[in-house]
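tmp note - DUF2187 domain-containing protein
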Amino acid sequence: MKVAEVGNVIEFRNGLRGIVEKVNENSVIVDLTIMDNYLELELEDKTVVNHKKYKIIAESAS
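out:
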């Protein structure tokens, strides 16, 4: 299992996507505001996702 890094875009739970802001031992903190339909979904702007529950969509540019 590859662990995401800060700046990676990940996908989790039925297609939600976000940018990784912080990597913890067992999870990542993700900013969801990059999604086009973010406001329609009425979600919090950040969430925590376990490393086992996401896949990396895009690597960070750095």
